[in-house]
């Protein structure tokens, strides 16, 4: 009998990049109407999964990112680099591309 060992890959962003998992698409309206999957647009909200160490300036000083894992952020409609890791889909953004952070 063969035993297979699960291979796990992790992705650590570099510089001021942030790895985000987008919120799932809304498949049903507030009134209960189901929408076709191809007509729904990607949500502009996501959860931060991993954060890079920060950006270095000209003098070599490290400026840490203001976001941390678990933060819920507002994303631009377009942009980011799509990344697939272990059948999960993530997006890689620069911290400056993220529009805002939801509080509370």
What are the salient characteristics of this protein?
single chain, 104 residues, mainly beta, 6-stranded antiparallel sheet, two-stranded antiparallel ribbon, 0% helix
Task: Describe what this molecule looks like in 3D.
The chain contains no helices and eight strands. It is mainly β and 104 residues long.
**Mean pLDDT value:** 83
Q: Which spans of ≥5 residues are poorly predicted at pLDDT below 50?
A: 1-8
The major β-sheet equals:
6 strands, antiparallel
Q: Could you tell me how far the N terminus lies from the C terminus, measured between alpha carbons in angstroms?
A: 51 Å
Structural class: mainly beta
Report the order of strands and helices: EEEEEEEE
Residue fraction in strands? 25-35%
- Cα-atom Rg, whole angstroms? 17 Å
Query: Number of helical runs?
Result: 0
Strand line-up of the largest beta sheet? 6-7-1-2-5-8
Helix content: under 10%
- The number of E-state strands comes to 8
Shape: elongated
Can you lay out the helices and strands and say which pair or pack?
Blueprint: E1 17-22, E2 45-51, E3 55-56, E4 62-63, E5 72-74, E6 81-85, E7 88-94, E8 100-101
Antiparallel strand pairs: 1-2, 1-7, 2-5, 3-4, 5-8, 6-7
Quick take:
By secondary structure, the chain is mainly β. It contains no helices and 8 strands. The strands form 2 sheets. A 6-stranded antiparallel sheet has the order 6-7-1-2-5-8, with no helix packed on it.
């Amino acid at each position: 009998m063969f035993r297979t060992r699960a291979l796990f890959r992790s992705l650590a962003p570099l510089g001021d990049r942030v790895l985000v998992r987008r919120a799932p698409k809304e498949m049903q309206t507030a009134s209960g109407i189901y929408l076709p999957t191809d007509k729904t647009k990607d949500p502009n909200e996501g959860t931060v999964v991993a954060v890079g160490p920060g950006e270095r300036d000209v003098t070599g000083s490290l400026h840490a990112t203001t976001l941390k894992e678990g933060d819920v952020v507002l994303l631009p409609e377009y942009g980011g680099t799509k990344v697939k890791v272990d059948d999960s889909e993530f997006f890689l953004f620069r911290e400056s591309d993220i529009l805002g952070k939801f509080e509370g």
